[in-house]
Each structure stands twice: as structure tokens, then as C-alpha cells.
Amino acid sequence: MTHTAVRLVDVREEPLDVTEVLASLDDDASGGLVLFVGRVRDHDDEKEVSGLGYSAHPSALERLLRVCEAVAEQHEVHGVAAVHRVGELEVGDIAVVVATSSAHRATAFAASRMLIDTLKAEVPIWKHQRFNDGTEEWVGSP
């Protein structure tokens, strides 16, 4: 059963919308809402990134839901939201949006930090980076 604080969880090919995530956590009881937006940057270490693709295992959505539920159970949050993009992305595109809301900012900050860190560690979504020098690499793949 889904924890009632989990408001939005998805893995999708369409561009991500920060306002959708914010709206999903809108409530009058929350004094703090912490939002993290991960974007495709133009470099990785010393190499210039030309673009990348994200691939997800079929279990990625279920695993993302479990991560959101764990965050909700470990923190006194009113809302949890996480959306990750898959497919081909360009520099500047939004790859992931996570947010939590709570009565107090400290709780929302801690919960959001746990959410993005656990997502990156446990949800099977892999990044295929392409560099301007013609090389490429997989990040986060088993």
C-alpha cells in the first residue's frame, strides 16, 4: 500500500515540469518545501558533454516508489514527489525532480537529501554520456 505522503512518482520520456511537482505537494500545513532539480550539465570531470541518454530497468518505477515510501516513513513529511526522465536529453534538460514538504524546513531538507541520494543509489536508471571528443561512458550501470 502506498504511503499517503507519496504524492507523485514517475519515470517518463516526456520533459519534466517543476510546476507539476510543486503543485503535487501544495498544502496549507507545510511550512517548508525543498525542491531539487537535476539537469544535464555541459561537462563531466575534464570532458565536455554533448548529450546523454537515460535507460531504466522495468522495475525502476516500483523501486522509485519504494524509495519515496521509505523517505515518508523515516521523516515527518506531508508530501514526497520524485520524477525521473528517460530517453535522450541535451545539455540543460531536466533529468530528475524530487521534492518533499513538511511543517518545518529542517525536516524537508533532510528528507529531500535522503530522497535524491537514495534514488541515485538504488533506482535502476543508467546514464549513457556522450562527449564532444567522440568518447562515451555508462554511469551507474551494473
TrEMBL record:
Protein's organism: Nocardioides oceani
Superkingdom assignment: Bacteria
CDD domains linked: MoaE
Pfam annotation, one family: MoaE
Cross-referenced InterPro entries: MoaE_sf, Mopterin_biosynth_MoaE
Protein name: Molybdenum cofactor biosynthesis protein MoaE
Gene3D superfamilies membership: Molybdopterin biosynthesis MoaE subunit (3.90.1170.40)
